[in-house]
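User: Here's a chain of 299 residues. Predict its fold as tokens.
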Amino acid sequence: MHLLEVSQVSKHYAGHTALNQVSLNVPENSIYGLLGPNGAGKTSLIRIITQITGADEGEVRFAGQPLQPQHTLQIGYLPEERGLYRKMKVGEQLVYLARLKDLPPAEAKTRVKAWLERLELAAWWNRNLEDLSKGMQQKVQFIASVLHRPKLIILDEPFSGFDPVNAAIIRDEILELRRQGSTIIFSTHRMETVEELCDHVALINRSRKVLEGRKTDIKNQYKTHTYTLLTRAPVAHLAPSCELLASQPGPEGTTEQQIRIGEGGPNALLATTLAQTEVLGFHENLPSMHDIFIRLVKE
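Assistant: Prediction complete.
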């Protein structure tokens, strides 16, 4: 089931087309990567989903229903440009933001305390936000985005400004939120985050969707049929359907070769190689999401 369905959505600004007939389907309980270069239209789409702006054409459906104002209570949004009140106390501010999401006062306070303890911020309850480091402020903003236990969480560059330790803490919290039933949309330029966390991805470029699907299916779609072969001794000849792309010395006197495999498949290559020398390693070189991103954006 799809929690969010975007159908033929377009958005125009004074002669500029930000989105052009974009359609997306975000599966329920997934981590969905929304990718694209700067100016591609990602932020315009997020603003339509969060109802900050409206679409000029098309439809957005949330949990099977046309998107309505009341659905904002089931959406959490962490914008790339953080926007908390710097002169307001941390605890007071989070309780206030939770109340805006219809949480009763007592429940809001309980949840805020629990989250501050989980992210090691409990001692800062009565301190102004401006007294916190940038990373700590971003933790507070993350808490504000998920306090009300939304069905859909939209995170725009959530790891920006975090050191590796705090990035790992937030990553683990995101995975836990997914385990608890949330659906998460990542808007990011960090392909290592996409590789690690995302189940599904979509790529928007120049206002149009150019790619969408399961990450594993997309990698298979763009694979180059190349393999790395590590052998004890150099291989004198390959199977007829194979092409040697590169060869270099491996560790401890071994040989590493990059090979493109044709119709015969891996078994033909291995059979020919094993007749000549010992095979120490063999794996397919699947393209990374970074490689696919660069290729499609350049095209």
